[in-house]
Design a protein that fits this description.
Residues 1-45, 101-204, 380-415 are annotated as: Disordered. There is one protein chain. This protein has helices spanning 11-17, 26-36, 74-80, 82-87, 173-182, 186-191, 207-223, 235-251, 255-267, 271-279, 281-291, 294-307, 312-318, 321-346, 364-381, 413-424, 434-441, 450-470, 472-475, 488-492; strands at residues 46-47, 50-51, 57-63, 66-72, 96-97, 130-137, 147-150. It is an alpha+beta fold. The chain has three domains: 46-153 and 178-191, no CATH class; 201-321; 322-383 and 409-512, no CATH class. Strands 3, 4, 5, 6 and 7 form a five-stranded mixed sheet that branches. It has a two-stranded antiparallel sheet with strand order 1-2. Helix 7 crosses helix 8, helix 10 crosses helix 11 and helix 11 (281-291) packs antiparallel against helix 12 (294-307).
């Protein structure tokens, strides 16, 4: 007797017992194995991004002609995102009850939360009793930020409660049969819609849409402990992608989960990352703050403090007050250190053979060398004087007298840092070299001679050696970037990088 295919209504029962039924016909065995469920090759897969059996949160991400569909777990989403924790709560939830089968109702608790949907479904052994549905709403205006919003499950009539978990509404009998024929690859088909396959439609998918799909895919991948798909070759492209992902995570209150992944990915670039931070410290300071990356935040903060007040306006517009307070505190600490070093530099002096401090009376030539050295320090650590103001009694008596200038402002740390780096360099000929000393001595013809020039240069070298020892604390570097290298980035850094940033200086709590 030849076996006949059973109707779809009894298909589930046959799947549970088909492995126990045997037939002598090879054709019958092949039929049972491929159509009834002798193996699980035709069963819907229960894996990311579509958990067909246990998923209870359906998310649709549409961008241009492409739609990515996810069927995930409320338990996972609420642990990773404050947005999902709030929107699936009893106060805001718009979940729809589901039927475990077509013949009986699910049992839902009095609080409206089904136990299977709250975490048991993720184990794969329980069927969810409620379902949440989200769709990406792009908004009505050009400046609106796309946001996931809850939608009701599409319904044609009351029978929609018995619809499939991953289907939006009732299906016809022909659709049910076609589903079983194609159920061997729904997971692969949905997964192929990920951003990695978007290259097949470059003519219809804009770069903005591609970035949007990539960001959401990386967001959900990270929730399920999959590595995000980010550029691992070009550090500049990786920064753009990481920044976009962090912005999305901030939007859905998921930074504690996404931040460590971004931090881990960027730190793999090592020296290339340090050079990029040196070029764009403000951008990386914000990224490090969002990702709670201790290393990136510290590296960028040292650059920002050393160049202060450069970029102050941009920082005040984009960074929170707690970060600005840290920057200002570190700037104050650096200025205090510089002030102490500057005072010691101006007190440097040469001595005579009897141990007396040189003066015009006991060593005029040595005193000239000290004066020239101090003048160089003053010129390179003090801002240019303001333009001359008109005084009362000048020829233009009709104009009101200009107010007297106040005390000159402190020089920017960038200019000061360049001067101290020159003083601390190992090459004494970088400033006040032979030509400058010769030109200075010629201003007093009676003192200019080859012997006096040699003595003058020797005494100047003694002052430079003492200055090098004084400025040594300012030459320290807290950067990961190797300043002793010969790269263009390292050579271009003329500001001070001796700022120390500890765990207590971070704008978040760090476990010791």
């Amino acid at each position: 007797m030849v076996s006949q295919p059973d109707p779809p209504s009894s298909l589930a029962a046959i799947r549970g017992t088909s492995s126990l039924v045997s037939r002598p016909s090879a054709r019958s065995k092949r039929y049972n194995r491929s159509q009834v469920g002798g193996t699980n090759s035709y069963l819907p897969q229960n894996e990311f991004p579509v958990f067909s059996h246990s998923g209870d949160v359906e998310i649709l991400i549409r961008a241009g002609p492409v739609e990515n569909r996810y069927l995930l777990h409320r338990h996972t989403l609420t642990r990773c995102s404050g947005f999902f924790e709030a929107s699936t709560s009893s106060e805001w939830s718009r979940a729809q009850p589901l039927l475990p089968s077509g013949h009986e109702l699910s049992k839902i608790g009095e609080d409206g939360n089904a136990s299977a949907a709250d975490g048991d479904s993720e184990l794969g052994g329980a069927t969810p009793t409620k379902k949440w549905r989200y769709e990406l709403d792009s908004g009505s205006g050009d400046n609106d930020i796309p946001m996931l919003v809850q939608r009701d499950e599409p319904r044609d009539d009351g029978r929609s409660l018995g619809s499939s978990l991953f289907g939006p509404g009732p299906k016809t009998s022909s659709q049910s049969r076609s589903h079983h024929k194609s159920s061997s690859y729904p997971s692969k088909r949905d997964y192929s819609r990920s951003v990695m396959s978007l290259g097949q439609q470059p003519q219809t998918l804009s770069q903005a849409d591609e970035d949007l799909l990539r960001d959401y895919d990386n967001l959900f991948r990270t929730f399920y402990n999959y590595p995000p798909v980010l550029d691992s070759i070009n550090v500049a492209d990786a920064y753009v992608q990481c920044k976009s992902l962090l912005t999305l995570a901030d939007q859905y209150d998921a930074l504690p989960v996404i931040g460590p992944r971004v931090d881990h990915h960027l730190l793999q670039f090592q020296s290339r990352l340090w050079k990029q931070i040196a070029k764009y410290p403000i951008s990386y300071l914000r990224l490090g703050y969002l990702a709670r990356s201790k290393v990136i935040f510290q590296e960028a903060l040292i650059h920002v403090v050393g160049q202060w007040p450069a970029g102050e306006r941009s920082l005040r517009a984009t960074m929170p007050d707690i970060v600005l307070d840290i920057i200002e505190d570190k700037v104050d600490e650096l200025e205090e250190t510089v002030s102490r070093v500057e005072g010691r530099l101006f007190r440097l002096n040469l001595t005579t053979s009897r141990g007396e401090r040189v003066s015009p009376n006991n060593g005029y030539l040595d005193w000239l060398a000290t004066s020239l050295f101090r003048q160089w320090i003053a010129d390179n650590t003090t801002p240019q004087p303001p333009p001359e103001f008109r005084r009362p009694g000048s020829r233009d008596t009709n104009r009101p007298a200009a107010p007297l200038p106040s005390a000159p402002p402190a020089p920017p740390l960038t200019a000061v840092g360049r001067a101290y780096r020159t003083l601390g360099s190992g090459n004494p000929n970088t400033f006040l070299g032979h030509d400058e000393c010769k030109k200075f001595l010629k201003l007093t013809p009676e003192f200019y001679s080859r012997e006096n020039l040699r003595r003058f240069e020797k005494r100047m070298d003694e002052l430079k050696a003492m200055a090098r020892s004084v400025v040594r604390p300012l030459m320290n570097s807290g950067l990961e970037l190797d300043l002793s290298g010969s790269s263009r980035v390292a050579d271009s850094i003329g500001y001070l990088t001796c700022t120390e940033v500890g765990n207590r200086d971070l704008p978040w709590t760090v476990d010791e």
